[in-house]
Structures are given as C-alpha cells and as structure tokens.
Amino acid sequence: MFVDEEEPPNLVDVTHPSASAVANPITSRLQDISLAKVPLTIVTGYLGAGKTTLVNYILKEQHGKKIAFGDSADVEKALTVTQDGQETQEWLELANGCICCSIKDSGVNAIESLMARRGTFDYILLETSGLADPGNLAPLFWVDDGLGSTIYLDGIVTLVDAKNIVLSLDEMPVEGKGDAEHEGMHMTTAHLQISHADVIVINKCDSVTPEQLGTVEKRIAGINGLAKIHRTQYSQVPKLESFLLDLHAYDGVESLDAMSKGHSHLDPTISTIALPLPPLTPRQLSSLESWLRSVLWESILPVVPIPGRDSRSESAFAIHRLKGRIFTTTDAVKMIQGVREVFEIVDLDRGRSDGKGMESKEEGKLVLIGRGLDEDAFGRSLRARLEAA
Ligand SMILES: Nc1nc2c(ncn2[C@@H]2O[C@H](COP(=O)(O)OP(=O)(O)OP(=O)(O)O)[C@@H](O)[C@H]2O)c(=O)[nH]1
C-alpha cells in the first residue's frame, strides 16, 4: 500500500465526548469473529533504511500467524495477507484511494471490512513510503476505545540507516512541502520519522565503526528521549515481542522511567523535555488539560501573568509526541498520550496484567518531543498554571 504524505488527514480529538456515540456497523459484525483487538504497527524510515528487510524478517519469524502488510512499492490500495507462507492480495475500499487521504474512519473501516470478509488478522504492519511523515498517519489508527474499533495502534517503528542518518538529519529540508508548520526551519523527513517513533532501529550497523555508531545513537536519543533504540544488521532483533511487535506504546507509559533528564541540544531542531508533575487536585487536572489545549492546539505557551502585560506568548514551537503520567491527590493514576494536536488522558491501571504495575518511586511527569522546546520556559508556564488552579 502506498501511503502518501502530501495531504494531512483530518485530525480528530479523541477526547471529544461525541466521538463515543458514533456507531460502527462493521465493528458489530466483527465482534462475531473475534473479541480481540488487532495490533497495527507503522513501519517508517528513510529511503533504503531497511523497512522491507524488517517486514520480511517479521513475516519469516511469525510463520503461521496471519499478518496483513502494506508495502510502499505496492499499488495504492492493496494489502497483502500472509499465512503459512501463502500470500494473497486484498483490496481496500478507500474513499479517496489512499489511507492517508481518506478520513479517519474510512482508513480503519477499510481494514475492518477486509477482516469481516477474510477473518481477523494476528497483526497488521503498515509500511510507509520513505518520505512519509508518520505524524499524519498515526492519528488515523489511534482510535478512541469508545468507538469500538477492532484495530489498535501498537506503535511506530522507525528504521534509520546507521551510515546515512546524520547526513539525512543535516540535509536541507525538502522544498515545496507546503506544510505551514514546518516552513522556515531545518526540519527534515528524518527528524519527523525519529521524533514520532516509539522504537528506533539503527540498521546497517555493519557499515559504520563503533565510534560512528555511538555518535549516531547520541544524536537520535537527543531528538527522541522516549523511544527504545536497537542496533541491528539486516533489521534482526533478539526477539520480536516488545522489540518490534506488541509494543503497547499507546496504552502504557513505562518508557517515561527510562528518561531521567532528557533535554539535550545535540540536535538543533528537535529535542525531548521532561516536566515534573506534582499530585494534582481535580481543579489542577482540568488546568493541565487547558494548558495542553493551548500548547498543542494553538502553539501558545501561557506565560506567568505579570500585571499590565500580555500573559500569552507565541513562539515557534511544535509538539510531535507527548506522553505523561499523572498522580492525583485522590490516589488515581492517569496516563496522557498525544500525537501532534490529538491527545487523551485516561486512567492507568495500577496492576497491569503484564506485571508492569506502578511502583511507589515513580513520579508524575510530562514528556514532550518537538521543535523549539525550552524546558525552563515550559516548566515555569506549567507550574504557574497549576499553582493558580
Ligand atoms: N549492509 C547492509 N545492507 C542492508 C542491511 N539491511 C538492509 N540492507 C540492504 O539495503 C537495501 C535496502 O533495504 P530495504 O529493506 O529495501 O530498504 P527500504 O527501507 O525498504 O527501502 P525503500 O523501499 O527504498 O524505502 C537492500 O539491498 C537490503 O538488502 C544491513 O543491515 N546491512
């Protein structure tokens, strides 16, 4: 399947209360087939980084499972379904010919109606074109639980070529992308693919020295302090589970604990910042939500009010990815997840079935990945908003 980055999809606020009320007839049919949700992983990476090699590796290792995958070299609407080494091409019924250009529901519905015809899959891998911006694609599959989708976004895996990634990050941005958010700054496709990743696979490690590899890894970790980073040759990892599949990147926040202090200036364009969150009262929780709306929706950082001065500051920043853990004064634990303008705050299960429950030493924290992030200014702004609540 060809995933085109030219046209951004319609973004939908997954927190919007009306969203849960939308009925989905295909989902009702699917519930007869299986109650289990099917994980979908987006595989992205610059041209030639090793995406196809990685997808083929997963298909080989997962022999016997029914996996649907879309290939950027494929014609626009086909998904290939593999099981027991047998491959069949399946056509998606998409409103505008391509998942990225279709409205959110039709991308999900096209895959769901395919599952209604073919039976459910064990896994879906969506390989993007080398120039795709995964931030446009992720919200299509990150569906509110209330909508009852049978697909869930498991995570974004970004492949980078160890030998060429630094050059790709330093190259001039592609001209004429027509994306107002990225105009006038040094933002490359490589930046976008790394900043949105939940897992980053530094591939082709055989083509660099250990010192070069160290430099590459530091640069990448400086951009995205949340993603797990793996070094590979021919995209091979010790095991698939939690390395490339079953990532649960959107329903857990374990990765926050790996990030003690993230802010680094190793990359001039994108960085990761971490802001501590004290236990919040209900009023502070709604203040946090309104602060997030200002930052994510309007790109306005509310500043500490000084009498007689404008209390809002506009600056050139943009958030690509957001994760957070909130403790409340009523002893609840919540998780924040966000991609670009879309965010949600949901209760976090303290005793998850995978054993990754909460521990007392863990603290409330908000981690932001994006362009032009000043950790001190963001920290001051958030503290002031919470103290005023
Ligand atoms: N030396 C070396 N070559 C690799 C490695 N991984 C993949 N390759 C080769 O690199 C080339 C590109 O790999 P692909 O998997 O096609 O890359 P891709 O990201 O799908 O490329 P596009 O579809 O063009 O975006 C192929 O010839 C692979 O065999 C590796 O770890 N080391």
From TrEMBL:
Residues 39-230 form the CobW/HypB/UreG nucleotide-binding domain. One of its GO terms (cellular component) is cytoplasm. It catalyses: GTP + H2O = GDP + phosphate + H(+). Keywords: Chaperone, GTP-binding, Hydrolase, Nucleotide-binding, Zinc. It comes from the Eukaryota. GO terms for molecular function: GTP binding; hydrolase activity. Residues 317-384 form the CobW C-terminal domain. The keyword Transit peptide does not apply. InterPro entries: CobW-likC_sf, CobW-like_C, CobW/HypB/UreG_nucleotide-bd, P-loop_NTPase, Zinc-reg_GTPase_activator. Belongs to the SIMIBI class G3E GTPase family. ZNG1 subfamily. This is CobW-domain-containing protein.
